[in-house]
Design goal:
Elements: H1 5-22, H2 28-44, H3 49-62, H4 69-73, H5 76-84, E1 90-93, E2 99-102, H6 104-110, H7 114-117, H8 131-143, E3 149-155, E4 158-171, E5 177-185, H9 191-220, H10 224-239, E6 243-249, E7 255-263, H11 267-271, E8 275-276, H12 280-288, E9 292-294, E10 314-323, E11 326-336, H13 343-420, H14 424-450, E12 460-463, H15 464-474, H16 476-486, E13 490-496, E14 501-504, H17 506-522, E15 528-536, E16 540-547, H18 554-559, H19 576-586, E17 590-595, E18 601-610, E19 629-633, H20 637-649, E20 653-657, H21 660-666, E21 674-678, H22 686-696, E22 702-706, H23 714-719, E23 724-727, H24 732-743
Parallel strand pairs: 13-15, 19-20, 19-21, 21-22, 22-23
Antiparallel strand pairs: 1-2, 1-5, 3-4, 4-5, 6-7, 6-11, 7-8, 9-10, 10-11, 12-14, 14-18, 15-16, 16-18, 17-18
Length: about 750
């Protein structure tokens, strides 16, 4: 018994209310349940299939089942793919009757491509006998508030044939109207066939909605795992498969690893599989880069059974994931049982694979940008560190110069007094002063060291392994005896593989690694393991000091090489790592730290490798000193006087000049055999004196006496014309050594 008219209206209203509740909910599954229950109820009440189809058509006309507006407004390619899956001619257009998208069946019907048809008026394609009806039907469709309009149509490209056209109005949220036109072969196209086609169109709408869901996830998130999970869920739901797995290539590019899956059972077993490229149907698809359908996996010798899962009849569909024209993985779909895949499933899966590939590409690009950002931050931190030390070095250089002048006067006068003092008690007091001056000079050099200003070392080839073994033995009391005293277990290990030599100062490098070892031991208050390792790199030797201690946070790592920064307020000075930084930099190397709280620390030192052994300083024979006429130039009178007195004690004839200008005024090649000059003087500085002396008498030796002596490289000194450098504070032995070297020089040409 059919519905009475009033009951039919009430039934449709009830169904529409159910749809309004279902559509904003969990998705299409509930929508299908609602429609299935309704049509089943109608059939039980006596409505035939044709009548049921008509009611579904009316639902579509009401807008409840219309294609979602984002699909109409979205990418034409996605809409075209959905329309192509319908085996009847279909067209969408705008309010001016101009075509926007058509499917492949319609292209074949009119013998023109989609690109050629876009923007053309639909009336140009219709037969002249139906053009008037075409506009009438179109206007009726627009004015019927969503009702489906059906009318007869003819095409110019198919003379004598008549088609049944179904107009379906579509509305977008912005109010712009669009339409969908489906053509069917004339009289044989019953309403039953119409209903089936519209149901298929609703399924295509669901597919398109899923594509848009995935597109939204790709566009709004950089979380690759979340996007892949969304894709796996939507693919399984829309293509109606039992299992969906997304595989990605590992770092080696040779093994496929599951990145996401949506399966009914055995998830852990599926996620544990590792599939080499070329193995299985999925591995073969990754190898060839072409999608494939295998509707009987049991009969395909390439198929691989997932360990721990039962053997079942199944069909497989695999499509590759292409990122920048390279295969990055694959999507594998499974239907268990007798259900098989069709070509349209492969086409739809390929669309999802394209979205997945875009997500992978975006995630990789994001990772590259993030890595570049972190590298930039690290470089910035190093530049800031370098700038801080350079600024501190400039300040320390001025301070060191002033202190060296003061210490030069103290040390020189003390040594002069020691030369002629017979009283033992007085000599003992003078020796204390001398020792204090020498210690002060050493303290100044330490300041210069951690500010990376000293450049006077004579490096020689060193075996890093010998240095590290010596340092480990030197610190044995700290990591062995001290650990026993504290009742903890501290172990030390060596992993020395470097065979290249490095150019350096053994004493300074021992100091660096001693500091690093002692810091590592302090970082392991409850015990742990200290490891010293060395390896050869490209033209470098890498030494690592690794501990299993408390580690450091980002703020501490950023300041660890700052002077006076310490995490040990009781016994720390904050200079150990600063000195190490300066020494390694002076050795033309670099030092870095890697650490996380609770994960220990690794200090890595890179030093340039060398093979050539540098010649040691030439030994000067102990010969009688010649009596020379010396001009001593310095703007500090106490320093000039002590230099004069030291030279006089050594048997030289000395005149002093206070300042560079006075020195040049007094100097003449006939009066003086050698010139001793300070470097930092106002007005005419030491380099000006060197140039002026050398221009008047190139053979006259010039000795630079300066508090910056530790900062002047030998090559730079000779390039500027100076012959020798005496660093302040100078001792009697320093002056004596220079005079002995002068005695071995060839006589100056007259």
């Amino acid at each position: 018994m059919a519905f009475p008219p009033r009951e039919a209206v009430a039934e449709v209203r009830s169904l529409l209310e159910s749809l309004r509740v279902a559509l904003p909910g969990t998705g299409r599954r509930r929508l299908r349940v609602v429609l299935t229950r309704a049509t089943g109820r109608w059939r039980r009440r006596g409505l035939g299939d044709a009548a049921v189809a008509r009611m579904v058509l009316e639902l579509a006309a009401s807008g409840a089942l219309s294609v979602a507006s984002p699909a109409v407004a979205g990418p034409a390619g996605a809409l075209r793919a959905v329309l192509d899956s319908v085996p009847v001619p279909m067209i969408t257009g705008d309010q001016d009757l101009r075509i926007t998208v058509c499917n492949a069946v319609f292209e074949e019907l009119v013998h023109e491509s989609n690109a050629a048809l876009q923007g053309r008026s639909l009336s140009e394609l219709m037969g002249p006998e139906c053009r008037g009806d075409l506009h009438r039907q179109f206007e009726a469709m627009k004015s019927c508030a969503g009702a489906i309009q059906i009318g007869r149509m003819t095409l110019v490209s198919v003379p004598g044939a008549e088609f049944l056209g179904a107009w379906i109005p579509l509305k977008r949220p912005d109010g712009v109207g669009t339409w969908l036109l489906r053509l069917a072969s004339g009289p044989v196209a019953s309403l039953e066939t119409m209903g089936e086609q519209l149901r298929r169109e609703a399924a295509q709408k669901e597919k398109l909605t899923a594509l848009l869901t995935v597109s939204h996830a790709v566009a709004t998130s950089l979380d690759l795992d979340r996007i892949l999970d969304t894709i796996a869920r939507e693919v399984r739901k829309v293509i109606q498969v039992d299992e969906c797995m997304v595989f990605l290539l590992d770092e080696t590019g040779k093994v496929l690893v599951p990145a996401a899956c949506d399966v009914q059972a055995f998830r852990d077993e599926v996620m544990a599989i590792r599939l080499p490229v070329g193995q299985g149907v999925t591995g073969n698809v990754v190898l060839t880069g072409r999608g494939e359908i295998v509707n009987s996996a049991l009969d395909d010798p390439r198929a691989v059974q997932v360990p721990g899962t039962p053997v079942e009849q199944s069909a497989l569909l695999c499509v590759p994931l292409l990122v920048r024209e390279e295969v990055a993985g694959a999507i594998t779909l499974t239907r268990i049982g007798d259900r098989i895949f069709q070509t349209e499933d492969l086409e739809l899966a390929t669309l999802f694979a394209g979205q997945c590939s875009a997500a992978i590409s975006n995630a990789r690009l994001y990772d590259e940008i993030r890595r570049a950002y972190h590298e930039l931050r690290e470089a910035q931190s190093q530049l800031v560190q370098s700038a801080k030390l350079n600024a501190l070095g400039e300040m320390a250089g001025g301070v060191a110069h002033d202190f060296n002048n003061i210490l030069a006067a103290i040390l020189g006068r003390t040594q002069l007094l020691l030369q002629n003092e017979p009283d033992a008690d007085v000599r003992r007091q003078l020796e204390v002063i001398e020792r204090a001056a020498l210690d002060g000079a050493q303290a100044v050099r330490r300041v210069q060291e951690f500010t990376r200003l000293r450049q006077d070392e004579h490096f020689e080839p060193l075996d890093v392994q010998e240095v590290l073994r010596g340092v480990l033995e030197l610190t044995r009391s700290a990591w062995e005896a001290e650990s026993k005293r504290r009742g903890v277990s501290l172990a030390a290990a060596l992993d020395l593989r470097a065979v290249q030599l490095v150019a350096g100062n053994a004493s300074e490098l021992r100091e660096v690694f001693t500091n690093l070892i002692l810091n590592a031991l302090d970082a392991m208050p409850w015990g742990g393991t200290l490891t010293l390792s060395s390896t050869d790199a490209d033209g470098e030797v890498c030494i690592r000091v690794t501990d299993t201690g408390v580690g450091m946070d980002a703020e501490t790592r950023g300041r660890v090489f700052d002077p006076f920064f310490t995490t040990k307020p009781v016994k720390g000075t904050g200079l150990g790592l600063s000195v190490a930084y300066g020494i390694i930099t002076r050795h033309h190397g670099r030092i870095e730290v890697e650490s996380e709280p609770g994960c220990g620390s690794v200090f890595s030192v890179w030093l340039p490798a060398t093979v050539a052994r540098q010649a040691g300083p030439e030994m000067v024979p102990d010969t009688p000193l010649p009596r020379l006429r010396v001009l001593a130039v310095d703007d500090e009178e106490p320093v000039a006087e002590v230099l004069r007195d030291l030279l006089a004690v050594l048997g030289q004839d000395v005149e002093i000049a206070l300042g560079g200008a006075a020195g040049l005024e007094r100097y003449s090649p006939e009066r003086f055999d050698v010139v001793f000059t300070d470097l930092g003087m106002p007005g005419v500085n030491g380099w000006d004196v060197v140039r002026a002396v050398k221009s008047r008498s190139p053979g006259t030796p010039v000795v630079v006496v300066t508090g910056w002596g530790a900062q002047i490289e030998g090559g730079a000194m000779h390039a500027r014309g100076a012959d020798y450098v005496i660093p302040k504070p100078f001792s009697l032995e320093d002056v004596l050594d220079v005079l002995r070297q002068l005695s071995t020089r060839p006589a100056r040409a007259a």
